[in-house]
Design a protein that fits this description.
The structure holds two protein chains of two kinds. By secondary structure, chain A is an all-alpha fold. Chain A is built from 14 helices and two strands, in the order αααββααααααααααα. In chain A, a hairpin with a 7-residue loop joins β1 and β2. Chain B contains 15 helices and no strands. The chains are: A mainly alpha, B mainly alpha.
Chain lengths: 321, 315
C-alpha cells in the first residue's frame, strides 16, 4: 500500500508541501483499510477508463501491430515483419516529407519563439493589460482552417493584399502558396502568426513567477537591462522556456490542417509534411500498414525530441534555489 | 541606464522620489518604444480579421479591380446572404458565388452538436476521474494516473488511424457517435487540470458532510462540483473552442454532408471554384460566420481564457 504514496507524482512532483501532507494522511487510512475506497473509485473512474482503454491504449498497441502488417482497408492485416520499415528507409518521398517537416519546424519554432519571447517581455514590462493579451491571443482561438483560408486569400498572387503591397513597393509579386520555394516558409509564417500570442502568454506566465526582489537587487547593484536579462531573466525563465519549446515543437511536427486546406502538399512535393504523407498513404492509397509504420516513426521522433530537449536544456531543474 | 524591469514596480509619478535623481525622461522613451512595438503586434494580429470583414462585405466581382482598396469593394451583403442561404442559386451565381453553395445552417448545427456533446461528456467524466484521483484512496491510484498522463505524449495522428478503423468496424462512420466517441470520455489534460484544482480546494465542508454520513456521490455532486464551478467553466470553454476548431478527426470520419462540421465544410467550400476564380467574398463571409461563436465566447469570457493560459501547477 505504501508504494502508492511513494511513487513520485510525474508532473506536480513531490515538491508541494501541502500535497505531501495529504499523502501522509492517505497512508495512515490506507493501512487501516487495505482497499480504501476502491469500489466507489471504480465507479468514478469507469468512464475515463473506458475512454483511456478504447481510444488511447488499444489504438496505441494496435497501431504498433499494424505497422508490421500489410493492410488495405479491405480484408485482414497480413503480418509482414519489418518490411514496411525497410521500405520506408528507402522511400524517397518519406525522406522528402521529413526534410520538409524539419524545415517547417525550424522556421516555425525559430521565429515563433523569438517573437513570443519579445512579446512576453513587452507584456511583462509595459503592457500588462488583459485586453492586449486577449487581442494577441485571438488568432489562436480561431480554427486552423479559418486562419489558413484567411491567409490563402491575403497572400493570393493576383488579388491578395500582401502582393498588392509588395507590387506597390515596386517589388515582384510572390507566389506564396504556389511556388516550391515559398510554400513551406509561407505555411510556417501563417502558423507563427496564429501561435505567437499564445506562446507569448505561456512565456509571460513564466516571467511572472520570477521573484521581483531579484530585479531590485540587480538594479541596486547597478546592473544594466541587458545584464539583468541575461543573468536573471533568462536563467530563471529556462524551465518554462524548455517546456514551451517541447510543447510547441511537438505540435509543430504534426502540422496538417494548414497544409491540407491551402497547398494539399504541393506544389509537387514541396509542402508534403509528414502528417500529410501519412494521411495520403492511409486514405489516398489505403495502405494502412505503411501509414501506421510512418506514424510509429513520427511517434519515436517526437519522443526523442522531447527527451533530448528536456535532457540537454535541463528543463526540469530550476535555478531558483 | 535605468532598468525598465524596475519601472513596472513603481507607480509612474511626476514627483521625483526622494533620494533618486529625476528619471522620467529616459524611462518614457523606453516606454514609447515598447508601446510602439506592442501596438505593431496588436495591429499585425487584428488587421487580418478586419481584412476578412472588408472582403466579406465586398462584391466578389469587384474585388479584382479594387484589390488594394482598404474599403469594401462595391459594398454588398450578398456574400453573407449567399453563405446563409438567403439567395437563390441564380442570384448567387450572378453575384460571383458558386451555384453549389455552402450548406451553412446544417454545418453550424453539426458543429454545435459535435462541440457541445464532446465538451459536456469530456468535462463531466474528467471531473469524475479527477475526484477519484484527488479524493479517494485506492490501490494503484498513482500508477493509473501516471498512465493517463503518459498518453499526453502520444501524438493524435498515431491513435487516429486505429481509431478510424475501430469506428469503421463499429459501423459508426459518418455518425455523430463516431465523431464524438474518442473525445467523449476523457483527455489527460482535462483530468490533470481538474485534479490540480480539486487538490487545492479546502476539504472542511466535505469532511463535515462525511461525518454527517454523506456518501461520495453526494459530496461530488453537491459540494465539489458547485465549488469548482469556475475552473469547470474555464475548462469547458477551452474544450469547446478546441472542439469547435477540430478538423482532422471530423475530416476522417465525418465527411458525409449530414454530419459535416463547419471546419470540414469550409475546406470543401474553398475547393468549389466557379470558373477557376474562388468566391473570395463568400469564403471570407463563411469563415467570419464560422469563427463568430468563438469570437462571441471570447468577448464574453475573454479574461477567463487569457488567465487560464500558463503552466499552472507544472514547474
Amino acid at each position: 500500500m505504501t508504494t502508492i504514496t511513494k511513487l513520485p507524482d510525474p508532473v506536480a512532483g513531490g515538491s508541494k508541501p501541502s500535497y505531501r501532507g495529504k499523502a501522509g494522511r492517505a497512508r495512515k487510512t490506507g493501512r487501516r483499510r487495505r482497499l480504501g475506497d476502491l469500489r466507489i473509485a471504480l465507479l468514478f473512474i469507469l468512464p475515463a477508463m473506458v475512454g483511456f482503454v478504447a481510444f488511447y491504449l488499444v489504438p496505441t498497441v494496435r497501431g504498433i501491430y499494424l505497422s508490421f502488417t500489410e493492410y488495405s482497408i479491405l480484408g485482414d492485416p497480413t503480418w509482414i515483419g519489418t518490411k514496411n520499415y525497410t521500405a520506408i528507409f528507402g522511400d524517397e518521398l518519406f525522406w522528402n516529407a521529413m526534410g520538409v517537416t524539419v524545415q517547417y519546424v525550424g522556421l516555425n519554432i525559430g521565429f515563433q519563439t523569438i517573437i513570443a519571447l519579445g512579446l512576453a517581455l513587452l507584456m511583462h514590462r509595459v503592457a500588462k493589460s488583459t485586453f492586449i493579451r486577449g487581442a494577441l491571443l485571438l488568432p489562436f482561438l480561431v480554427a486552423n482552417v479559418i486562419v489558413a483560408l484567411l491567409w490563402f486569400w491575403m497572400l493570393d498572387y493576383q488579388m491578395g493584399i500582401v502582393n498588392e503591397l509588395i507590387s506597390w513597393l515596386g517589388l515582384p509579386r510572390i507566389a506564396f502558396f504556389g511556388s516550391e520555394q515559398w510554400a513551406i516558409p509561407t505555411i510556417a509564417g501563417v502558423n507563427v502568426w496564429r501561435h505567437m500570442g499564445y506562446t507569448a502568454l505561456l512565456i509571460f506566465a513564466g516571467l511572472q513567477s520570477i521573484p521581483n526582489h531579484l530585479y531590485e537587487v540587480a538594479s541596486l547593484d547597478g546592473a544594466s537591462p541587458t545584464r539583468t536579462f541575461w543573468s536573471i531573466t533568462m536563467p530563471l525563465l529556462r524551465p518554462v522556456l524548455v517546456l514551451v519549446l517541447v510543447v510547441t515543437v511537438i505540435g509543430s511536427f504534426q502540422v496538417f490542417d494548414t497544409v491540407a486546406v491551402t497547398t494539399g502538399g504541393g506544389p509537387v512535393n514541396a509542402s508534403r509534411v509528414i502528417q500529410m504523407y501519412i494521411y495520403q498513404k492511409a486514405f489516398g492509397e489505403s495502405d494502412f500498414g505503411y501509414a501506421s509504420a510512418l506514424s510509429v516513426i513520427l511517434f519515436v521522433i517526437l519522443a526523442l525530441v522531447a527527451f533530448i530537449q528536456m535532457k540537454f536544456l535541463k528543463g526540469n531543474e530550476s535555478d531558483l534555489d | 541606464m535605468t532598468t525598465s524591469a524596475l519601472s513596472r514596480k513603481k507607480p509612474v509619478s511626476n514627483a521625483p522620489v526622494p533620494g533618486e535623481p529625476v528619471r522620467r525622461k529616459p524611462v518614457n522613451w523606453r516606454r514609447v518604444g515598447a508601446w510602439t512595438l506592442v501596438a505593431v503586434a496588436v495591429a499585425v494580429t487584428v488587421a487580418p480579421f478586419l481584412w476578412m470583414l472588408r472582403t466579406a462585405l465586398s462584391s466578389n466581382h469587384s474585388l479584382a479591380a479594387n484589390a488594394g482598396n482598404l474599403l469594401p469593394a462595391d459594398f454588398s451583403l450578398g456574400a453573407f446572404k449567399r453563405v446563409l442561404g438567403l439567395q437563390s442559386p441564380e442570384e448567387a451565381i450572378a453575384d460571383g458565388g458558386s451555384g453549389a453553395a455552402i450548406n451553412f445552417w446544417l454545418y453550424l448545427r453539426n458543429s454545435i452538436i459535435f462541440a457541445s456533446v464532446t465538451t459536456a461528456g469530456q468535462v463531466f467524466f474528467s471531473a469524475m476521474a479527477a475526484y477519484a484521483f484527488s479524493r479517494l484512496r485506492w490501490p494503484g491510484r498513482n500508477v493509473v494516473f501516471a498512465l493517463f498522463l503518459a498518453t499526453m505524449m502520444v501524438p493524435p495522428i498515431f491513435t487516429a488511424l486505429p481509431n478510424f478503423l475501430m469506428i469503421k468496424n463499429l459501423g459508426l462512420l459518418n455518425t455523430f457517435a463516431g465523431m464524438a466517441l474518442p473525445f467523449l470520455f476523457m483527455t489527460p489534460f482535462a483530468i490533470f487540470f481538474l485534479r490540480q484544482f480539486f487538490l487545492s480546494m479546502s476539504r472542511e465542508v466535505e469532511e463535515a458532510a462525511m461525518l454527517d454520513g454523506a456518501k461520495h456521490l453526494r459530496i461530488f455532486f453537491q459540494i465539489v462540483l458547485p465549488n469548482a464551478a469556475a475552473p469547470l467553466a474555464t475548462l469547458a470553454l477551452l474544450t469547446f473552442i478546441g472542439q469547435w476548431n477540430e478538423y482532422f478527426w471530423p475530416l476522417l470520419v465525418g465527411q458525409d454532408e449530414s454530419v459535416r462540421v463547419l471546419t470540414v465544410g469550409l475546406g470543401v467550400f474553398k475547393s468549389q471554384s466557379p470558373q477557376g476564380a474562388p468566391d473570395w467574398s463568400g469564403l471570407m463571409a463563411a469563415t467570419l460566420v464560422a469563427a463568430l461563436p468563438v469570437l462571441l465566447l471570447f468577448i464574453a469570457f475573454g479574461k477567463r481564457v487569457v488567465n487560464s493560459i500558463g503552466f499552472s501547477g507544472i514547474k
